[in-house]
Amino acid sequence: MTGVAESATGSATELRQAELHASLGHPLAESMDFLNGVALRYPGAISFAAGRPTERFLDLDDVHRHLDLFHRHLVESYGGDQARANQQLLQYGRTKGIIHDLVARNLAADEDIHVDPESIVVTVGCQEALFLCLRALRRTPDDVLLAVRPCYVGALGAAQLADMAVLPVAASGSGIDFADLEARLAAASAAGQRVRAFYLVADFANPTGTSLDTAARTRLLELAARHDFLLLEDNPYGLFPADDAPRPPTLKSLDRDHRVVYLGSYGKTGLPGARVGFAVADQPVRTPDGRAELLADQLGRLKSMLTVNTSPLAQAAIGGKLLANGFSLRAANDREREVYRGNLRRTLAGLTERFPPGGGHGVSWNTPGGGFFLVLRVPFATDDALLELSARSFRVLWTPMHHFYGDGVPVAELRLSVSNLTHEEIDTGLDRLAAFIQSQTP
Amino acid sequence: MTGVAESATGSATELRQAELHASLGHPLAESMDFLNGVALRYPGAISFAAGRPTERFLDLDDVHRHLDLFHRHLVESYGGDQARANQQLLQYGRTKGIIHDLVARNLAADEDIHVDPESIVVTVGCQEALFLCLRALRRTPDDVLLAVRPCYVGALGAAQLADMAVLPVAASGSGIDFADLEARLAAASAAGQRVRAFYLVADFANPTGTSLDTAARTRLLELAARHDFLLLEDNPYGLFPADDAPRPPTLKSLDRDHRVVYLGSYGKTGLPGARVGFAVADQPVRTPDGRAELLADQLGRLKSMLTVNTSPLAQAAIGGKLLANGFSLRAANDREREVYRGNLRRTLAGLTERFPPGGGHGVSWNTPGGGFFLVLRVPFATDDALLELSARSFRVLWTPMHHFYGDGVPVAELRLSVSNLTHEEIDTGLDRLAAFIQSQTP
């Protein structure tokens, strides 16, 4: 960090944050800084905070192998033309991506989603896909987004970057409070706002771990059609159910109206270090001169001015993994799935042991159907000062739920992430967490 | 492309482009589409249009080697900890990047720029770096950008994505028309606009090929200090001078006030397929509660909501190349530099042969000091219909200069790019270009 530098001309540069983009001074930005900082300050703390996928199977040898496999695939598809294969892999590339055909096959194999590869935009992670959608849909300040609250922080942040207002929808035990949703739609209409889309994670959401059942998904599709808004379905955790019970179909696979933009990520199932995600945006778009295009083409135009194209090298690492696994990532993630299931099971059992039913401790929690997260309800508000105390004196980290409401108002909940821990760390971590909670509830 | 799909609910989705972000219907977006499309429609045409770097030395074996070299570097710096090295390379990573220390050494070695690695943000190409700067600086509609016109299309596009107005500054033979610049500053002030920054490419600019001399650079720094705006110095071509004459120093290396944000790219000198660039943003920023930060930290916060982090895998490909070359890319690009020099020389000689001095043909051109581009002045306005005719009937592509003015008004100039051609293609291409030009000037 530097302070203000004096100069020969006597006019040293100093910018004032209050004169930069409004998102920079917003509580949301401070959230992220605080959460990152507290983890760095207490490296000895066991962290139930970080939602990163498990690292134990990441191997650079796999990356080399996948790059070569994808390169061979290119050479074959170009009839032996090595130069053209090199160009595709190592040069500036097609804006909407070079693995769109493989992604389409992956969606068909793993999610029963069948789309034209031309409707796919390969992005720098799902985050870029989400920002591109919001940027496309936000033309005026009256274009707004709906999202269940508490919400993935990255969605709130992407909306801020696009200067797009987010209207919160209350959550319920089953995911969405539909009465509140209908009320929000009515209020928006009365206020002259246009709801362009509803962002949601239908399977094992972040931060709640909740999933929508099939009836709720169908109801949402009907509402979206009736009120003419899109559904932005983000699905990073769908391949990690806690058991093998049949799963509801994705909203996109139920979609008959091109109502759903499906936002995908290879950050958990592919390779986090590649930073590759995608949007399936097959919505028809009519241009002023009457041409028929796709929303994917609009997103591509915006992307060309944001990142030009997603790194073909990074795409090749994912493309090679898809080719190596017959376009399905389910079996390829068997080990990872077992880690997350085992961690979730261990955490839930460990909580029950330390906070038994009828124990009068005031602590309860949900039982997610899968994914990385669960929510602990505790008999005290969880603010950042408390997290700092928990880290410093009890050496355990978790995430205060207020960060997912985006308004800085502490609530009596905290999020636990179980994705990047060993069983020993879970056991010790829960001991520390219990000690912390007990210290707050005399 | 799909048309409108009918649905069971009878409420098929169709978006109207006119209700999406304003950049989508803008002439600039149509520019890019047209230019991309015409190249695809005429694959047999020789292209003086595409500004891509040469591909002839791109090799996947180098990528494998560089990834391993960077991995070994990580293992060493972590005292043999393979797990930690894997984590750094293959997991979600540090927002501002994982090769910032290597980039700092590269800047010191190649550009005499000496900065704290904490002031560097590694981005998805220079394009993301530029967008982040504009997003940070554009708080209200009165925050505007200056840019020399004709301008790199990507800069105009990034400004549109941030809803930031761009005020054009006239070019001159030596780069910037300073009288026009001062007039623009006065007009902006009178209109209540705040000029936040001036975007420029000081060396071998796109599209003009012009470079600023040292006196102009110093004058620009003084103006920026006097009127309190930043200089966004984009330098993709600096390592490709046409001869070995001493080069003016970068604006950043002359900067004593933290007035310059240096935007770098490894797209031409590193590996285009990695998509890695960076911003050096060491400007002090004062927060409302009095803390001293850097502009790089603000860019990092915005980036975390846009792309989360730049692919560590892609960064490793660049990091490994930097390590393999003692942090300098000058010698590593000797072959590429020779290609561009040779192509420029051949093109200039070929133009002189076909359009000799005193020949009464009305064709003239500039002689750039390096880079990929030169501008041909011709005795007729060059519009897109003419480019289509040139492609179809004469099988040669070039770029109508109006695309770099961003207003769709044809001018009597065209840009030639010489970067991705062989000598034979240049010779044949110039024959075709001469035939086309002669067909327009009876």
From TrEMBL, chains A, B:
Its cofactor is pyridoxal 5'-phosphate. Keywords: Aminotransferase, Pyridoxal phosphate, Transferase. Gene3D superfamilies: Aspartate Aminotransferase, domain 1, Type I PLP-dependent aspartate aminotransferase-like (Major domain). GO terms for biological process: alpha-amino acid metabolic process. The keyword Nucleotide-binding does not apply. Residues 83-433 form the Aminotransferase class I/classII large domain. One of its GO terms (molecular function) is pyridoxal phosphate binding. The keyword Amino-acid biosynthesis does not apply. CDD domains: AAT_like. InterPro entries: Aminotransferase_I/II_large (IPR004839), Class-I_PLP-dep_aminotransf (IPR050859), PyrdxlP-dep_Trfase (IPR015424), PyrdxlP-dep_Trfase_major (IPR015421), PyrdxlP-dep_Trfase_small (IPR015422). This is (S)-3,5-dihydroxyphenylglycine transaminase. It comes from Actinokineospora auranticolor.
